[in-house]
Design a protein that fits this description.
By secondary structure, the protein is mainly alpha-helical. 60% of the residues lie in helices and 11% in strands. The protein is built from 6 helices and 3 strands, in the order H-H-E-H-H-E-E-H-H. InterPro entries: HTH_HxlR, WH-like_DNA-bd_sf, WH_DNA-bd_sf.
Amino acid sequence: MENTIVLEEPITAQKCSENLSSVEDAIYVIGGKWKLKIIIVLQESGNIRFNELQRNIQGISARVLSNELKDLELNGFVKRVVHAEQTPVVVEYISTDYSRTLKPVIMALSQWGKTHKRKIKEDF
């Protein structure tokens, strides 16, 4: 079955360039091996501590996770909550409302991935 895309207006070179630029910006912020995995786990788990987050993302090192969390926090996808009143100090990470705006994108990617996997299996 072939998917047909119906365009409302012809795409100009300028519009194409704008679309490419926007996609590049999005990929820069959420691209890479780990960022989307971190965002998905945080959205599914709610408040989660660093070690639990690391256990949920198989193969990520503590150093890489720490760097990715800093990056995601800088871009407004993750909030770091420090409970200094507890001993020892407890640090939790939560996804922000802004992070949850990615939910439709993540769901679309998930569905596309499932469809693609089926297609590849059928082709072989």
